[in-house]
Amino acid sequence: MSVPEVLAGIRAAEQAAGRPPGRVGLVAVTKGHSAEQIQQFILSHGVFPLAENRGQELRDKVPLLPGAQWHFIGAFQRNKVKYLRDVTLIHSLEERWQAEALAEAALKWGRAPEVLLQVHNGEAQKHGVSPGDLPQMLKDVRATGLTVRGLMVMAPHDQPEAATRVFQDTARRAHDLGLGELSMGMSDDYPQAIAAGATLVRVGTKLFTPATETT
Ligand SMILES: *Cc1c(COP(=O)(O)O)cnc(C)c1O
Question: Which residues span the membrane (predicted)?
Answer without folding.
Answer: none
